Amino acid sequence: MQGGSAASGHLAAAATILVWGTTYISTKVLLEDYAPIDILFTRFLIGFFVLSLVCRTRVRFRRWREERLYMAAGLCGVTLYFLFENIALTYTYASNVAMVMASAPMLTAVAARLFLRSERIGWSFVAGFFCAAAGIGLISFSSVEEMHLNPFGDFLAVMGALTWAVYSIFTRKIAAFGETSAEATRHIFFWGLVFMGPALYAFDFHWGLARLADPVNLGNLLFLGVGASALCFATWTYSVKTLGAVKTSAYIYASPVITVACAVVVLGETITPLMGAGIVLTMTGLFLSQWFPVLKERWA
Predict the structure, then answer these.
(1) Domain around 196
(2) Which of 2, 88, 174, 249 is least surrounded by Cβ atoms within 10 Å, i.e. has the fewest?
(3) Residue 222 lies in a domain
């Protein structure tokens, strides 16, 4: 175990997912005045500058064998993941995307088994995956009368899940370089912003600085840039460094649960019996993936 205690790693991952599960509200508000590419680039640009202030040093480029890992992490975890997810939402239902993204922890586990020999997949992780996937399915489709498939949109969602799995593997490898989580995350953000350049042109990016005069827009962009990007990507990197890619990725299961809770508290939505069952199944899956092996070892 490197980079800190297991308890601090679990706490960082849980806190990260707690924030990420609420970001849809800020994004939903901003979409009234901003295009998805505007939000994406601005939030990570803010995150990069915040991390630069925290690190107080310039980005230190490494030899090619190491630098290419940062480049790949920025391409996969910042540029491609969010582009695939955002574009997928324009072609298919959010429920479809949520269901596909539930596969990210399992895909991460498979990738870790292939490329990180030190990380293993136990039966409890597999059982937790199927349990959480069933729960997320109930949550996602509880408000949808009919299930519709859009091959292209669902394919993009699958690509998003795959790129996140690959990102997790790269961050695990980067953890061995000895940088702090903030330094590594800033380095990754740098390359993510570089690779986002062509997308800015393709999707007609606009600065639209006048929109920041609205305190609601400014507040939500700062929340996404400082909290959800700079802080949370750094804490996620710390968790991957401490717990490993497999254990950290399992916390993704809790994101839909937090989203539902946030919708109840902020938007006044109600929890249906189907949602309630989904929440129980999802949290049971998270328990099986994360805590059952620990308790079993202690009881043995």
Answers:
(1) 6-299
(2) 2
(3) yes
Report the predicted TM-score, pTM, of the whole model to 2 decimal places: 0.82
Whether 155 is in a domain gets the answer yes
**Domain tally for the chain?**
1
Q: Which two tokens stand for residue 65?
A: 């064998």
pLDDT band at 69 (very low <50, low <70, confident <90, very high): very high
293 pLDDT higher than 60 = no
CA gap 70, 72 in Å, rounded: 5
Instruction: Indicate whether 1 belongs to any domain.
Output: no
Query: If pLDDT is split at 50, 70 and 90, which confidence band does 300 have?
Result: very low
